[in-house]
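Render this sequence as a predicted structure.
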Amino acid sequence: MKIEKTIYAWPKNIQGEEIQTLLQFIDINDALHFELIWTGDEWIDCPGELFEQALIRGMSGAENWTTAPKESFVDLFFPGALEPRFNAEQQKEIKKFLKLDIEDRVLEIATHIHAEQLDLANRPLINHVLRTMENATMMPSVEQMPVEDKIKLYLGAVLHKTLDHPGSSLWPKVLPSDLAEWGIPRDVLAIVECLTKDYSLIKYLGQERDQVSYLTSVAANPLARLVKIAQVADEDANRQRILWMRRIGVSPQAGSDDSVDTTIAMNLSEEELDFFMERATSPIDPIMVEELLNDFQPKFEQLLASFSKGDPDEVAAEIERLYRAYVMFGGFSGSHVNLDFRDTFNEFLLASSRYLESTGGMYVLQKILEDFPDGYPSFAKTLTEQQADPKWQLGRIKILHFGPKHPIDPVRREEFFPEID
């Protein structure tokens, strides 16, 4: 890889003021051009070819300091600018991951950049990055993609947060030129830069990129668009992550894109919307089952104790709330919930339905199943398997017949209760 770096003392700063500024041009393989500005503390990226074009037009006062002795001009006027951005240990790690295939290399890059970095749910950020990659590569349209686009999508998804990293003692701020020097292809860089809302120059100038123009830009890049959909499905819309955030007192909207605005801007197809909802409601961590069980079990036991002495309306409201919470977390999908938890919930269904019958509160289950028809098969099957009295079953199911407008397919009812007309 051919890398050329040129240092310029520029007569004006980025705002056009007559303040001498240090610039660095980085050219890679005569194909990629990057312009960096020294702020006095760090180098930041200046997108485009603003200064190079000014130089070509004959900008007066610009001086090439590339060959100037370090002890003289640069250190005198811009102390620290020529110090290595990566320390010796970090440079060793860079040499290691440069020997890897590109697919493994981006994983190492992301792991180093996001080391010990936490998201708003106080969980390792690298886990969100990897889930975004998984979501992106599972999108419905990916199967029909050319192999080269699939690879670009994978690489862009793994790296999509790298330019947002503010820098730390573990790993300094990463610039687009760094990724290019580490062998990241131009098209993948375009994805990552497109997904980075507030790049370093905007932050340095104290500005903020307009959300509408940002989303419009992302939507115009087909691969960046898919990564954005995958990111939002995990970061802003996933119900387990929202639960984590609420538990530590963080608003689900804090510091993130509005998932509704984003999905509208991305103009999801029906297939993409179905996939988005499936990923948003799927547990994102194996600990999900234990979390639900730990949350549900004490509330369930408390509810059982209240059946004999609690206010019927309050008990009915609690039954409805627990039922909704269970359904919202995919409890009836089967693939996400272990048998212990399903048994616990089945016990809850039986106990609560008996209670509601005795207090005339079956309207609660009727209302629940009107809103969550997918819960009907599990409820009906539970009654069939665990309640021996067919008359008791028949009474429950008749109460749950809501007329011709009920969303549940009669064929599905007959699957569990063939004796009922």
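Summary. The radius of gyration is 29 Å. DSSP finds 21 helices and five strands in the chain.
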